[in-house]
Amino acid sequence: MDDSQVESAQVSSQDHGCRGRIPNACTACRTHKIKCGGSQPCSSCAKHGRECLYAVLKPRGRRKKLHREVSSPSGVSTPAKRPTRTLQAAGELSDSSANAHRRPGPLATKRQQRLRCGVGVAQSGTGGYQFYGPASNFAFLQCIYQRIHRNAPNHQDRPGAMCVWGFDKFAFPAAGTAAQDHRRAPVCVPKEMGDCFIKTYFQVAHPQYPFLLRSEIQQAWASFWNPPREGHQDSVGKTARNIVLMVLAIGAHMSSLHKDKDAATMSDWAAYLASCARLDDLSFGDVSLQNVHLLLLKSIFAMQLMRPNDCYLYVGHAAVNALALGMGRAQVANGNRTGMYRLRVTFYTLYAVERLVALFYGRPSCLRDDSIDATLPEDLPENHGGDTICDMSYVRAKAQLARIADRINTNLYFCTPVAADLTTIVRIVRECDAEMDIILQSLPPFLHFFDTHMAPSTESWQEVQRTHLGLAYYHIRTLMHRPSLVWLSMCASKAEALSEARAMGVQDLQESIDVAMDAAKALIALALDACATRAPEMRQDSGVAYNIIAACLTLLYDVLEGPSRTAAGNAASTFEAVQDGINCLDYMKHHGPHFGKVTLSSRIVGVAKDAFRHIFDSEASNNNAGGDNEASASAPVTDSTSSQRLVQNYTEKTSHISDLDSLLGQFPWLA
């Protein structure tokens, strides 16, 4: 809502204060049918931490009557709200007239549509098909591939980026995997190994998703070693058993490695344990808190396996179950009882995962803020006891970031009427930037991921939360400003891109590009610092990998046109950041699906090599195209200005080739 509308609502509220009512309530209060104070934000929205929006007031009555009231003498008492509405409508009319002069042409409209193009991934032989929106890594990979090969988005003669670089293996499971899991004979997990897996889960995964109680998991794990009882096992006991199996599977995947626990062995244990926690038809119809926990654990495990489609589906089912339970409603979850508190912790953990997964994978969210009024979980007393995390600052911050992520996903990357107006997009980005800065100001010191000189915490869970909050923050900022980088690549030159953006009311295109590049570099630096120094227990946490891939792809996209057109201004620093990202991926020995000896880092290296070859070929073609100019430069030239221009062009081309040679010497893995 713009400032004029807020001011109008406040003025009207003051004028009618004597009558005890306001002329306009915010959208959230009107939806929930509660009294609104008329302020910005109102007390209810401020209490629940949601966005406070007011609908535009429409004038009532006939135009003639309205005109007479506006033009009445000063001695006559007239309500102040009617002239305000008239002036507001006139302002909106003038704004729309001004925007009409900045209406983009057909070429600019086509470019804006390409900014919101996703990618479809098909599996030959099975008929499987998945779609990923423009914010996803898969769609951005295809965008890089099209830029390298100079083909249109709908070009069908060339295999896509997913097949060439091997990323299609992450979309679909290997053929026959499910059948092999069902045919496996039951295996007894050694108790000591299971204890180790549970310890790893609560050391690495639980700080990110603090919705389970360690005492309950250990009690259920101990029951595995009791003799079986006669009679049919009820659904509650079956769900509790499956939850323990998923905790063991995630812990196995995240376990630190040594000579007796290599990556292949841990991956096999994780796959087996997860296959034992099978979901039948009744599982999706079981509306219970335990089933929400189970589905959320399934989504977390899919995230560890780099299976974006499975992750999105499982967390979506968990969100639907949570809505059926009413976990997002104040009358269900608000209260001082332990059960209500746990409902809020679970719901807002699920809320953050679902919203961020929807943005990062380019798909819509099934959660709507209009139907959520449960308060964010507060901190517990420090004497609560046990291994319970009492400080819920991380959960609250992730929930606030998730709310911003949904706004970005809806208004920037989906084909909505808002996304068609570039100036509106710029305004939304600025508002989201300001909201994210406010979130940083409210963080406790142990979550200050932006302070690179801060000493490591003695509590490992604080380092895990600090790292993952920073990864989500920088990833969102990268996606907020990455469309500016893509827009620049669609134009013939940087000057044309800046000029066309200014014509449509965007004055800070280059600044937005710089923000995207800085956020991508900061993300990689944060992940490398955590895995190498601050939290080495996170080295096998594959949830970090997806964020690193997004940052590396953003940096590589910027240098595709070579040193002559890089927006970063320094291609060497860009490749250095990509190299740090590859080193961080090398720490993770069993991230994602394995096919032979091809690792995730080697796939990123393949993309970087193709990007560097494209840079070299582009510079070579530019030099060949300038051969005529060089020949003419050798001929006698009478115009001194023309002679200086030719010498300058030749010098620039020579320096660009020299820059490429130095890059190859500095980063030999690009060869």
Q: Reading side by side through the largest sheet, how are the strands ordered?
A: 1-2
Stretches where pLDDT is under 50 for at least 5 consecutive residues are 1-19, 64-101, 627-638, 640-657
Number of helices: 28
Average per-residue pLDDT, rounded, comes to 77
Tell me, what's the shape? globular
Largest sheet: 2 strands, antiparallel
Report the β-strand fraction as a percent range: under 5%
End-to-end Cα distance: 52 Å
Beta strand count = 2
How does the helix and strand content classify structurally? Answer: mainly alpha
Helical fraction equals 55-70%
What is the chain-wise order of helices and strands? HHHHHHEEHHHHHHHHHHHHHHHHHHHHHH
Radius of gyration: 28 Å
Write the layout of secondary structure elements.
Layout: H1 3-15, H2 27-32, H3 43-48, H4 63-70, H5 81-101, H6 106-115, E1 119-123, E2 128-132, H7 137-149, H8 161-164, H9 177-183, H10 191-205, H11 214-223, H12 235-254, H13 263-276, H14 281-285, H15 289-304, H16 308-325, H17 330-333, H18 338-360, H19 393-413, H20 422-441, H21 460-490, H22 494-503, H23 509-534, H24 543-558, H25 571-587, H26 600-625, H27 627-634, H28 640-666
Antiparallel strand pairs: 1-2
